[in-house]
Each structure stands twice: as structure tokens, then as C-alpha cells.
Design brief:
Distance between the termini: 103 Å
Strand content: under 5%
Largest sheet: none
Number of helices: 3
Structural class: mainly alpha
Helix content: 40-55%
Oligomer: single chain
Shape: rod-shaped
Radius of gyration: 31 Å
């Protein structure tokens, strides 16, 4: 078969087009008629609250010697952790363990910071 436009390979009417609408079509073409391109990407999980709760909880628990900072970060970790757990229960997040770790560490940080503050104020 001679190369060139009329009836050549890769042109309408040529052997490369067997099933595409308007061109005769390509065998094995599994696309959706009238749809071109890829499907829209699905949104990923919203894991920010659980991660923030865990980080703030660790900061509160480890840094309880700075008791005002420990109490503030512990309260924030508790709030973010509870929000993160509720998101995980609704299926919007995929890290319920990190959110729970934030709640636990935040609570420990609050208790240690409060205990240290009471000890400092009562001891003298």
C-alpha cells in the first residue's frame, strides 16, 4: 500500500482507524463516547487536625517544665484531637490514632503543667 494521504496509515480511511467514530474506530478502544481526558482526582483525606493534635500534645507532654506553654498547647491538642477524631469517624480523615495520641498527650501535658504550677505556687 502506498504511503500518503488518501488511504494511508494514520489517516481517516487507512488501516490504523477501525472503530473511532468519524474515523472508523480503533480496535480495543475502551473510552467513553463523548468523553476525553482523565477522571477528576478524588480529594485526599483531611489529616491536618490529627497531625496538629499529635504534635501539640507531644510538645505539651515533653515541655511541661514550661507550664504555661504546656497548658496552652495541651488545650489546643485536646481541641484539635477531638475535631480530628470526629473527622475520622465521619470518614473525612484516615488518622484516628494520631488524633487519639494528641488527645492523650495533650491531657497528660495539661495535668503535668497544672501539677507543676500548683507545686511552684504552694511550695514557697
Amino acid at each position: 500500500m502506498p504511503y500518503g494521504y488518501p488511504g494511508g496509515y494514520g489517516f481517516p480511511g487507512g488501516p490504523g482507524y477501525g472503530g473511532v467514530p468519524g474515523h472508523g474506530g480503533t480496535p480495543g478502544y475502551g473510552g467513553v463516547p463523548g468523553y476525553y481526558g482523565w477522571a477528576a482526582p478524588q480529594p485526599g483525606p483531611s489529616n491536618g487536625m490529627g497531625m496538629a493534635a499529635m504534635v501539640l500534645g507531644i510538645v505539651a507532654a515533653v515541655g511541661f517544665c514550661l507550664w504555661p506553654v504546656a497548658i496552652i498547647t495541651g488545650v489546643l491538642a485536646l481541641i484539635f484531637g477531638l475535631i480530628g477524631r470526629s473527622k475520622a469517624n465521619r470518614g473525612e480523615a484516615s488518622n484516628p490514632g494520631q488524633a487519639l495520641a494528641g488527645v492523650i498527650c495533650g491531657t497528660v501535658g495539661i495535668l503535668l503543667g497544672t501539677g507543676l504550677a500548683v507545686l511552684i505556687m504552694v511550695a514557697p
